[in-house]
Specification:
Blueprint (H helix, E strand, L loop, with lengths): L2 H4 L5 E5 L9 E2 L10 E3 L12 H6 L4 E4 L13 E5 L2 H12 L8 E6 L4 H14 L4 E4 L3 E3 L4 E3 L7 H13 L4 E5 L2 H5 L8 E6 L13 H9 L5 E8 L3 H10 L6 E5 L6 E9 L2 E7 L4 E6 L4 H17 L3 H9 L9 E3 L6 E5 L4 H14 L4 E5 L9 H12 L2 E4 L9 H9 L9 E3 L3 H11 L5 E5 L6 E4 L2 E4 L2 H7 L2
Parallel strand pairs: 2-3, 3-4, 4-5, 6-10, 6-11, 7-10, 11-12, 12-13, 13-14, 18-22, 19-20, 19-22, 20-21
Antiparallel strand pairs: 1-5, 7-8, 8-9, 14-15, 15-16, 17-18, 23-24
Length: about 475
C-alpha cells in the first residue's frame, strides 16, 4: 500500500520525503523490521523507539512515524519521516488503514472488566460454533485466527498485530471475533480505530493500580470501549463501576442493556441454585423466561453467562442454541478447573489473582465443601502492592486453612511480597501457613487434604510458568497437584 494511503486521516505535523513509496508492513519493534516496512517510533516505559531509527533503516525500513525531530546526522536519503503528536495512537490508525479497516467487516465483541473476560469469550466461542458461525478469539490464554491457535503474550495485542489478526480472521471466513479488551489496551490506544459491534462490561475491582493512578482512572479506561460500539453495550448493573459507566453511556446512540441479580436489569437470574455439579437459575429477559444450567458452580458463572446470553440475544442467536451450549460447556482452562484424583476430595485450580476473584472462588468452594476449605495463593511481584494485604485478609477469612506462597515474584524478593500479604492476616489465628516455595506449598496442602475437603490453588490458572527474577521457569499448578496426588 502506498504510504500516502497508510497515513490518510492523520493529523500530520511534518513530512520529510516521498509519500508515494510502497509500504509492505508496519513494525514497532526494530528487531522485526523487514524490507520496505514502516517503523513506528514509540516512547515506551523502558525504551524510546526513536533510538532505533538507524537499526530499522539498516534492516530495510523506508518510512518512519515519529514524534521527535530527526537527528540531522542520520542519513535519511530514500526514507520518509512522518511527524505526528502521538505515535502510539496513530499507530492504531495507520494499522487500521493498512489492513483496510477489517473490524468494520468483522463483528467484533469486546469484553472488558477485571474478572470474567476469558470465560465470557470462551462461552461465546462454544455457542457461536453451535450456531454455525465461525468465531475468532483474542484473549489471555490464546488467539484463534479461524485456522490456527497462537499462544497469547498479553491480553490485548498491540494495534498492528491486532489489525493483522482481524484481517486474517476475515480471510479465514470468520463471522465474528470475541476479544478481551484490557484496561492497558484502552489507555494505550491499542484498540483505537477498532469498530466493536458489542461491548460487554463484567465488573471492576482493585487491580493494575501500579499502572492506573486510582480506581476512577481504571474505570475511565474501561469506559472508553463503550464509546466505540455500533450495535449494543451490555453492562453488569450490580457492579458499582458498572452503574457509573451505565449512567455515563446510557444517553449514547448505541443502545445499552443491563444484566444482574440484585438490581432490576434487562437480563436477570432468579431462583439460583449452586452445588458441586454446577449452577442453575431462571433466566428473565425482556421477552421470555427460561431455566439455564451450567456445569460450572459459582455466582461468577451466573454473571458471566448472563452477559453471554445478553450478547446472544442481541446477535439473534436462538435461545435453544445458547441454552444447550451452556449446558454442555467444558468450562475454561484454569478457571475453577477440577484436577482429577481418587482421594474423594476436590482439588481446584483457578486464575483468581485479585481480592474480588479470590473471594468469589472461595465462596463458591464453601458452597459444596463437606470437610475443610484449604487454599494456596500468593501475589505477583512488580505489580500493584495495595491488593496484597486484602488478599491475605480474604484468604484467611474464607479458608479453614490457607497457605501463603509465591506467585510470579518477578524481580521482587518473595519474602517481601509475602510480608505485604501478611499485613492483612490476623496473626492470632493459627489457620495460615507461610511456605515460600510454591511447589512445596501445593504439596503440603494436598498431603493435608482429607476426604470431603476442597483444596483451591489460586493465582496462576492456565499459566504454565513462574517468573523468578528475569527468568521464566516451567511451572503448572495442575501438573504439580497431580504429582503429589
Amino acid at each position: 500500500m502506498l504510504l500516502k494511503n497508510v497515513i490518510e486521516g492523520l493529523n500530520i505535523l511534518d513530512i520529510k520525503g516521498n509519500e508515494n513509496i510502497d509500504i509492505t508492513g508496519i513494525e514497532y519493534d526494530s528487531r522485526n523490521v523487514t524490507e520496505d516496512s514502516l517503523f513506528v517510533c514509540i516512547k515506551g516505559f523502558k525504551s524510546d523507539g526513536h533510538k532505533y531509527i538507524e537499526t530499522a533503516m539498516k534492516k530495510g525500513a523506508k518510512a518512519f512515524l515519529v514524534e521527535d525531530d530527526i537527528d540531522v546526522d542520520i542519513d535519511i536519503d530514500g526514507c520518509t519521516f512522518v511527524k505526528v503528536e502521538d505515535t502510539r495512537a496513530d499507530m492504531a490508525r495507520i494499522s487500521d488503514n493498512f489492513y483496510e479497516h477489517p473490524s468494520r467487516k468483522l463483528g467484533v465483541i469486546g469484553v472488558t472488566g477485571t474478572n470474567g473476560k476469558t470465560s465470557i469469550t470462551t462461552f461465546l466461542e462454544e455457542i457461536l460454533i453451535r450456531a454455525n458461525k465461525k468465531l475468532g478469539l483474542i484473549g489471555t490464554i490464546k488467539i484463534f485466527d479461524g485456522d490456527k491457535e497462537i499462544i497469547s503474550s498479553r491480553t490485548t495485542p498491540e494495534s498492528p498485530d491486532l489489525q493483522h489478526y482481524f484481517d486474517t480472521m476475515l480471510k479465514n471466513g470468520c463471522d465474528h471475533c470475541a476479544m478481551e479488551v484490557s484496561s492497558h489496551s484502552l489507555a494505550l490506544n491499542r484498540v483505537l480505530a477498532t469498530e466493536f459491534e458489542l461491548g460487554i462490561f463484567t465488573n471492576l475491582t482493585p487491580d493494575h493500580l501500579d499502572f492506573h493512578k486510582d480506581m476512577d482512572d481504571y474505570r475511565e479506561a474501561k469506559e472508553k470501549l463503550f464509546h466505540m460500539t455500533t450495535k449494543a453495550n451490555i453492562i453488569n448493573i450490580d457492579d458499582e463501576g458498572g452503574r457509573k459507566i451505565y449512567e455515563n453511556i446510557k444517553g449514547l446512540k448505541t443502545p445499552c442493556y443491563t444484566y444482574g441479580v440484585d438490581n432490576k436489569a434487562d437480563f436477570m437470574a432468579r431462583d439460583i441454585k449452586s452445588d458441586a455439579e454446577g449452577v442453575s437459575y431462571r433466566l428473565v429477559t425482556p421477552t421470555f423466561e427460561e431455566v439455564i444450567f451450567v456445569p460450572v458452580p459459582g455466582m461468577f458463572t451466573v454473571y458471566n453467562t448472563l452477559a453471554v446470553i445478553a450478547a446472544c440475544y442481541e446477535l439473534g442467536i436462538d435461545k435453544s442454541v445458547y441454552k444447550e451450549g451452556l449446558r454442555l460447556t467444558g468450562g475454561v482452562s484454569g478457571r475453577f478447573e477440577t484436577v482429577p484424583n481418587d482421594r474423594e476430595m476436590s482439588v481446584i485450580v483457578d486464575y483468581a489473582h485479585t481480592p474480588d476473584a479470590l473471594e468469589n472462588v472461595l465462596k463458591t468452594g464453601r458452597e459444596f465443601v463437606k470437610g475443610r476449605l484449604i487454599s494456596v495463593f500468593g501475589c505477583g511481584g512488580d505489580r500493584d502492592s495495595e491488593k496484597r494485604p486484602l488478599m491475605g485478609e480474604i484468604g484467611q477469612k474464607y479458608s479453614d486453612i490457607c497457605f501463603i506462597t509465591s506467585d510470579n515474584p518477578r524481580t521482587e524478593e518473595p519474602n517481601a511480597i509475602i510480608a505485604d500479604i501478611l499485613g492483612g492476616v490476623d496473626v492470632d489465628k493459627k489457620n495460615y501457613h507461610v511456605v515460600v516455595d510454591r511447589e512445596e506449598a501445593i504439596k503440603e496442602a494436598i498431603e493435608m487434604g482429607e476426604k470431603g475437603d476442597v483444596i483451591l490453588i489460586a493465582g496462576k490458572g492456565h499459566e504454565d510458568y513462574q517468573v523468578i527474577g528475569e527468568t521464566k521457569h516451567h511451572f503448572d499448578d495442575k501438573e504439580v497437584a497431580l504429582r503429589y496426588m
